[in-house]
Amino acid sequence: MSADRDVVDYLCNAFTPDRQAVWDGAIAKAGIPVKVRRDDADSFAEPSAMVDRMDELGIATLVLPTADLTRHGLLDPVEVDHIFCRWDEAEKLATSWPGRFVATAVLDPEQGMRGVREMRSRLAEPWVAGFYLHTHSWDRRLDHADYYPYYALGSELDVPVAMQAGTSGGLMASECGRPITIDRAALYFPETRFVLSHTGWPWVDEAVSMALKFPNVYLGTAAYPPRHWAPAVKDFVRGPGRSKVLFGTNFPTVGHRHALAQIDGLELDPEVRDALLGGTARSVYTRLRPEGGTV
Questions:
Q1: Cβ–Cβ under 8 Å, residues 15 and 44
Q2: If you placed Cys at 136, which of 5, 28, 155, 172 could pair as Cys (CB 3.0 to 4.6 Å)?
Q3: Angle of helix 148-157 versus helix 112-122 axis, rounded to 10
Q4: Is 2 a member of any domain?
Q5: How many domains does the chain have?
Q6: Chain mean pLDDT for the chain
């Protein structure tokens, strides 16, 4: 049993064994130098086994990007859409294990106001905690006008928007993920909380500067285990970003056991560690159950 309690992973993809073939196909197609973990104790699992693993590791909640298939997914069986949860999957998880699993609604900017209305309907469910944007699927900067109605909805409903910032692991244009392009959106929507995920690499300094500059911008560590965080991220979480960094895995890119085992190496003060592993996530994703209420 882990000494940590109430850990929140703000970005965990669909984790059941049927998704392993999708990941293998996507990695092979793109030629990405990523090794998805094959250890049975830290890889894909059936829901009940994942809950047991969460209990062992002190993980209270996994936040699951959830979506219907977009035009990309309908055309390509190994496109990123297929690694997200489907709505029926997320609902079953959220209702079978209340508080342990919540969804974030994946944005599709091509849907216009129809998409905005659908997102409003999705957010009527208490187990839907915010939005997620896979930026590189759409090749639009973070301040693109197509996103603004969703950012406004986030402000109205008091839910955050997390987005992949930095480069893409796949063969997609990366410039749209420049972290500094959140600048205008953060100014225009001061009540919307934005999470720049994937540490913003290779523009880590930009991501850190945005999280430092704006009260409503946060840095997310998904897809990078602590040992591979840039020095700027480590310095930020120990210093001025003590309450501005969220722990995440982008599972299965990083296994939960693997990532949490490296937290000790950061040598964080207890209060900073607690904020990183769950406290900050709860202040951003305010629909999560209160601390101590799920594990």
A1: yes
A2: 172
A3: 20
A4: no
A5: 1
A6: 92
